[in-house]
């Protein structure tokens, strides 16, 4: 080892933590900057369920280099947690503490770590729990990703909000009464975290007369993406990676009154 490398081994400059938005499915939805950072990272951390590789890792597999070290962060529990006295919050807190400690060991050794996050890292992303624990101690940069809300609207080919409409992002985990309150006042909405909450969400949309306007999409931009009317969904089959979009009412101005036939006729005349 030469003197410079020896000094680095004894007192390395801490590595950089990078929160990297990827997917949320299609590997090509990574940004140019995200791809550059991913390829340069010696260590790539990713969350996954037990015995799974995780959607974030799947989204970058085509871009990984053989020499990169993978650091799996395996959730101790996924799906609906057992009821109290099981200390779910405590288990999850200790899990994120442990993940942060493992990543800090790499950073202290002078190695950069790219922590993958499905969609955008700071939008309901599990990277946030690493950021909370590590950003104050290590140089940290967040590379935004394509949020699943806009990826789902694109998958549905549905305009989400026009002009001055407001979009509400709502978690399907909310109690029924709160869901009703949120949706009753919404011009447009994205209802996330469906899974076992789907039947409750659909029931509320039906009660409010919004079900026919709402659209369901699961695994948007993934190879097994699935789009079906709400009424056809078997709640037992709804995965976590799904959402319901309630697009804003079509804006009546700006030429929207021209029918598709008129537009086609105009195009043919041109
Ligand atoms: C923990 S949040 C992660 C959000 C993510 N950071 C983002 O920017 O979209 C997980 C929720 O995002 C939504 N989601 C993530 N990826 C999705 C996809 N490919 N298709 C549909 N919904 C998705 C689902 O509602 C899921 O329950």
From TrEMBL:
Matching CDD domains: Precorrin_2_C20_MT (cd11645)
A GO term, aspect molecular function: precorrin-2 C20-methyltransferase activity
Coiled coil: none
Pfam family, one: TP_methylase
Database matches in SUPFAM superfamilies: Tetrapyrrole methylase
Domain Tetrapyrrole methylase positions: 16-228
Superkingdom of the organism of origin: Bacteria
Keywords for the protein's UniProt record, in alphabetical order: Cobalamin biosynthesis, Methyltransferase, S-adenosyl-L-methionine, Transferase
Annotated pathway: Cofactor biosynthesis; adenosylcobalamin biosynthesis
Biological process, per Gene Ontology: cobalamin biosynthetic process; methylation
Family named by the database record: Belongs to the precorrin methyltransferase family.
NCBIfam families recorded: cobI_cbiL (TIGR01467), PRK05990.1 (NF004647)
Name this protein carries in UniProt: Precorrin-2 C(20)-methyltransferase
């Amino acid at each position: 080892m030469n003197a410079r490398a020896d000094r680095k081994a004894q007192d390395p400059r801490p590595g950089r933590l990078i929160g990297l938005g990827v997917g949320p499915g299609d590997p090509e939805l990574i940004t140019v900057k995200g791809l550059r950072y991913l390829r340069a990272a010696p260590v790539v951390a990713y969350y996954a369920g037990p015995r799974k590789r995780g959607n974030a890792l799947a989204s970058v597999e085509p871009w990984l280099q053989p020499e990169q070290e993978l650091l799996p962060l395996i959730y101790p529990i996924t799906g609906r947690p057992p009821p109290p006295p099981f200390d779910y919050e405590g288990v999850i807190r200790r899990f994120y503490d442990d993940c942060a400690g493992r990543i800090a060991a790499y950073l202290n050794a002078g190695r950069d770590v790219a922590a993958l996050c499905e969609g955008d890292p700071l939008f309901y992303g599990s990277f946030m729990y690493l950021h909370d624990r590590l950003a104050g101690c290590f140089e940290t940069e967040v590379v935004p990703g394509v949020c699943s809300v806009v990826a789902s609207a694109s998958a549905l080919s549905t305009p989400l909000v026009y002009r001055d409409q407001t979009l509400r992002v709502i978690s399907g985990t909310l109690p029924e009464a709160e869901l009703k309150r949120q949706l009753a006042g919404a011009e447009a909405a994205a209802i996330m975290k469906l899974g076992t909450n789907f039947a409750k969400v659909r029931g509320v949309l039906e009660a409010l007369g919004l079900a026919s306007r709402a659209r369901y999409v699961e695994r948007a931009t993934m190879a097994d993406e699935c789009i079906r009317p709400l009424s056809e969904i078997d709640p037992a089959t709804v995965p976590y990676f799904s959402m319901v979009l309630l697009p804003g009412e079509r804006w009546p101005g700006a030429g929207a009154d021209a029918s598709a036939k008129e537009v086609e006729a105009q195009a043919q005349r041109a």
